[in-house]
Design goal:
single chain, 279 residues, 8-stranded mixed beta sheet, 4-stranded mixed beta sheet, 12 strands, 7 helices
C-alpha cells in the first residue's frame, strides 16, 4: 500500500494555493503574539505548541480539504493546540469553531485566551469518563451524545482521540460524527494503524515509544510499558470497517512515519466523508 492512498475522488476538484498555505504555516509558527499555554502545564503535550499546531493546519487544508468558511468541531480539543492556528485561517464572518474536551483546565484556558479574542471560537467541557484523563466523569463513552444538532458541521477533527479510546467506544463516537456532519462533510482523524510493517518493525526504525503488542487476539495493540489507554494501535482494517458501519466512507488513508517509513506526518491520517443525506 502506498503511504498516501486517495480512495475516493473528491466530488468537486479544489485547487489549493500552495504558496499561501506555506506562508500561513510559517506565519503561525513565527507569531509570538498568538495565545500559547505555559509549557509546564498539564495536558499541553509534547513538542512545540505553535509548530505542531501550524503543521496540522497544513494537513487540514491539504489532506482534509478544510475551507475558510467551514463549521468545525474539534473533539478532544485539549488546550487549543489545533484551535490557535485555525484562528488565523477560518473566516470570522462565515465560519464557526466548537471545541469539546473532558479536561476542565484546558477548556477554561481556551475560553479565556481564545474566545475572548476570537468570538467565533467556542469551547465547552463534556464530562466524559476516561480512565486517564477524566476518571470521575459522569458520561460513559459508550453513551456519548454530542450536544449539537444534526448536520451542523462541515469538518470534524479527531486528532489523537482514537489513540486513547477502547474499541467499544469508537463506533459510538463515529456514529455521532456522522450524525452531526453536513452532507459531504469530512472527518479528519489520526490513529496508529498496526499493519505488517509496524507490527514487525520491518525497517528497524519504528518509534521506540510505540512498540505495540497485540492484546488477547482482538483489534487492539498496546505498549507494554504504558497504561492501556495511553496509546492504542488498531489492526489494519479495523477503523476502516468502523467508519463504514457508522455511515462514513474513507476518502484518504495516509500512513505516518511512526512505523519507520518515509512520510510527511507522524501518526496515520484518515479522512472520511459522510455518506447519504438522511439522518
Amino acid at each position: 500500500m502506498t503511504q498516501a492512498a486517495l480512495l475516493q475522488p473528491p466530488a468537486t476538484p479544489r485547487l489549493i494555493d500552495e504558496d499561501r498555505v506555506r506562508w500561513l504555516i510559517e506565519s503561525v509558527r513565527g507569531n509570538r503574539f498568538l495565545p500559547q499555554p505555559d509549557s509546564s502545564g498539564a495536558f499541553v503535550g509534547d513538542g512545540d505548541f505553535r509548530t505542531i499546531g501550524a503543521e496540522f493546519l497544513g494537513y487540514f487544508i491539504r489532506l482534509g480539504g478544510l475551507r475558510e468558511d467551514s463549521r468545525v468541531l474539534d473533539i478532544g480539543c485539549g488546550i487549543g493546540r489545533m484551535a490557535v492556528p485555525l484562528t488565523q485561517y477560518l473566516d470570522p464572518r462565515t465560519s464557526r469553531y466548537d471545541g469539546i474536551d473532558p479536561v476542565e483546565s484546558g477548556i477554561g484556558w481556551c475560553q479565556r485566551m481564545i474566545t475572548a479574542i476570537y468570538p467565533n471560537f467556542a469551547f465547552q467541557r463534556l464530562d466524559i469518563a476516561h480512565e486517564l484523563y477524566n476518571p470521575g466523569g459522569k458520561i460513559s463513552g459508550k453513551a456519548l451524545a454530542l450536544p449539537f444538532p444534526d448536520h451542523h458541521f462541515d469538518f470534524v477533527i479527531m486528532t489523537s482521540v482514537v489513540t486513547h479510546l477502547p474499541p467499544a467506544e469508537i463506533l459510538v463516537y463515529l456514529s455521532e460524527v456522522r450524525r452531526i456532519l453536513s452532507p459531504g462533510g469530512r472527518l479528519f482523524m489520526t490513529a496508529f494503524v498496526v499493519d505488517r510493517v509496524a507490527a514487525t518493525n520491518e525497517h528497524g526504525r519504528r518509534d521506540p515509544r510505540l512498540a505495540f503488542r497485540r492484546y488477547s487476539g482482538g483489534p487492539c495493540w498496546f505498549v507494554p510499558s504504558q497504561p492501556p489507554l495511553a496509546a492504542i494501535g488498531f489492526e489494519d482494517g479495523f477503523l476502516d470497517k468502523a467508519l463504514e458501519r457508522a455511515g462514513l466512507s474513507v476518502a484518504l488513508k495516509s500512513l505516518g512515519h511512526w512505523r519507520g517509513t518515509n512520510a510527511g506526518h507522524h501518526q496515520d491520517v484518515i479522512v472520511a466523508k459522510r455518506r447519504g443525506n438522511g439522518r
